[in-house]
Amino acid sequence: MDVCDLIDTCPFFLQEMTYLPATQNLMMKNYCRGAYSACARYMVYLVLGVDGVPSDLYPNEHKKAQEIVSGS
Ligand code: SF4
């Protein structure tokens, strides 16, 4: 099983960010312990580093992630 590099520090995985519990668990399974390279937070991290990832960005917010990365 693939596990995200950021799993020990990510506020989404540590549940400092809240979402509907069932949805959050599903996203953790699909992204954090699965296809983490497709996570919006991870995508921003790759380009801008950990400090560039907004605290309120959710793993499924790909459009927002692209805007952040492109600076718009
Ligand atoms: S939310 Fe994204 S960046 Fe955070 S641990 Fe999960 S896959 Fe990694």
Main sheet record: none
Beta-sheet strand percentage? under 5%
| Low-confidence parts | none
Nearest-angstrom radius of gyration?
Answer: 11 Å
Overall spatial form = globular
Number of strands: 0
Distance between the termini: 35 Å
N-to-C SSE string, H for helix and E for strand = HHH
Number of domains: 1
Structural class: mainly alpha
Report mean pLDDT, rounded to a whole number.
94
What level of helicity do the residues show?
Answer: 40-55%
Q: Please, how many helices? A: 3
Bound molecules: iron/sulfur cluster
Topology:
Layout: H1 21-32, H2 40-48, H3 62-70
The structure holds iron/sulfur cluster.
Iron/sulfur cluster (SF4) binds next to helix 1 and helix 2.
How would you describe the overall organization of this protein?
This protein has 72 residues and is an all-alpha fold. The protein has one domain. It has three helices and no strands. α2 runs parallel beside α3. The chain is globular and about 30 Å long. The model has no long low-confidence stretch (mean pLDDT 94). Iron/sulfur cluster (SF4) binds next to α1 and α2.
Tag the structure with descriptive keywords.
mainly alpha; binds iron/sulfur cluster
Brief account:
The protein has helices spanning 21-32, 40-48, 62-70. With 72 residues, the protein is an all-alpha fold. The chain binds iron/sulfur cluster.
